[in-house]
Amino acid sequence: MKRVNALVPTAAMARRPRGRPLRTSSRPRARATLVLAAATVAAAAGVVPLAATPAGAAPPGVRDDFDGNGYRDLAVAAPHALVDGQEHAGAVVVVPGSAAAPSAAATTVLSQSSPGVPGASEAGDAWGAAVAAGDFDHDGRADLAVGAPGEDTGQGVDVGAVIVLWGGSGGLGAGTALATPATPGLTGFGGTLAAGDFDGDGVDDLAVGQQGVNDVWIYRGGSGFPAAPTGFEATALTDGVAGVATLAAGDINGDGTDDLVVGGDNLTARDYFRNAVYLSPGSASRRVYAGLAGHGTSAAVGDVDGDGRADVVTGHPREPDGVFQGTSRGGNVTVTYGAAGGLATSRAPVVIHQNTAGVPGAAEPEDQFGASVALGDINGDGYADLAVGADQENIGEALQAGAVTVFHGSAAGLTTTTSYSLHQNTAGVPGGAEANDRLGNAVSLTDRNRDGRADLAIGVPGEDEGAGGFMWLPATATGITTTGSVGVGASATGLAVTGQYPPELGSDFSG
Question: Basic residues composition bias: which ranges (predicted)?
Answer without folding.
Answer: 15-27
